[in-house]
Amino acid sequence: MSNLPTILEVSDLHVAFPTRQGPFAAVDGVSLQLGVSERLGLIGESGSGKSTRALALMRLIKPPGQITRGRIVLDGVDILGLTEHEMRQRRLADIALVNQGAMNSLNPVMRIRDQMIDAMQAHGDERSKHEWQAHLADLLRSVNLRPEVADLFPHQLSGGMKQRVCIATAISLRP
Known about the structure:
Blueprint: E1 6-17, E2 24-35, H1 50-57, E3 66-74, E4 77-78, H2 84-90, H3 102-105, H4 112-121, H5 129-142, H6 159-170
Antiparallel strand pairs: 1-2, 1-3, 3-4
């Protein structure tokens, strides 16, 4: 544990999915603390619950799955008590997820520029056309992509480039 102020505290988190044999515990008692300026990466075998843990932290577990127990405190706020609208405003602004399957995160019929701008505008970020151009160029450069990538569609990018676009979007509001 670090000496940094805690930004994320997860206590005794449980996520379950109903089965014919009874509830399946996909996440069973996870606890962690993350300090300011620290990052969290999850590694493990396929089926070990990495994605389910990450989705739970984002409050994106889809029914019939559910968070059955625990607390998730983000910057002093228990996010399990937020309304869906309040939680939607926190995603990307305060907490972000970079999915392993980048293609599933990108809209195939929208240019990268429009997708990134839409995500930021959903959180009230408004800029002039020139300011958007400069901001997107900075974000794309930060993940070693040329600014021209903003004008492309996802199918025109390699898998690694798509992943970096997702990372750039995830850090766009500095969560």
